[in-house]
Amino acid sequence: MTEQPIIYTEHLTKRFGDFTAVDAISFEVQKGEIFGFLGANGAGKTTAMRMLCGLSLPTSGKATIAGFDVYKQTEKIKQNIGYMSQKFSLYEDLTIKENIRFYAGIYGKSDAFIKDKTAQLLQQLNLEAEGDKLVGSLPLGLKQKLAFSVAVFHEPQIVFLDEPTGGVDPVTRREFWNMIYEAATAGITIFVTTHYMDEAEYCNRISIMVDGKIEALDTPAGLKETYNAATMDDVFLQLARKATRSDA
């Protein structure tokens, strides 16, 4: 039997007065999948992600995250996910160790767990001698890697990444994606938004939102075949032109 999807949505909708920000989207994500959630600014990505993270109640439709209902079990959802935004969600005036301890404490991890995992994390990032440094003093790329490590420190079932690689160089982005692959291999589901179309190629599957609706959903290869496109940039441009014609 097929495993129950770790993210499930059916006609999920969010309205603000007369404006429909997310319009009846339906999709599923399987455990350990790297799922790309793409769309132009204003397409509804952030609003949809907030509903999936238990931060905003839907207007209508259904959704479960790690088996928990987005209407009734938002606190359970928050306990089973990690989150990282483009701003990295770290406290710059705290040290590396203090940031780790703070976030691990939120999820109720024991002192022994925090101590062991902190040592492992610092070793992985080659920061054994830097644990007492302020996060604000770190280079941008290293902050990014640390923020991701903190987001998965409590071993969540799903991690939501909102434009996580903005502003860093291509080499650092590639290294960051290696960390994503490692997390997915360990069974963590990755739900990522990005405006870098080359990064979309790294995902197992991609959905593309246009004006609050999912207009395309497939593997990168499947989307390129459907739209007779050489790259994901070409796919995205075709969908954007289609939307422009529909609005005309």
TrEMBL record:
* Superkingdom: Bacteria
Residue intervals of the ABC transporter domain: 7-236
Could you tell me the keywords of this UniProt record? ATP-binding, Nucleotide-binding
PROSITE patterns under this entry?
ABC_TRANSPORTER_2
GO MF terms held by the record? ATP binding; ATP hydrolysis activity
Q: Name one Pfam family in it.
A: ABC_tran
According to the UniProt entry, where is the signal peptide? none
Q: Which CDD domains match?
A: ABC_subfamily_A (cd03263)
PANTHER family for the chain: ABC TRANSPORTER G FAMILY MEMBER 20 ISOFORM X1 (PTHR43038:SF3), ATP-BINDING CASSETTE, SUB-FAMILY H, MEMBER 1 (PTHR43038)
Protein name as annotated: ABC transporter ATP-binding protein
This protein's species is: Ilyomonas limi
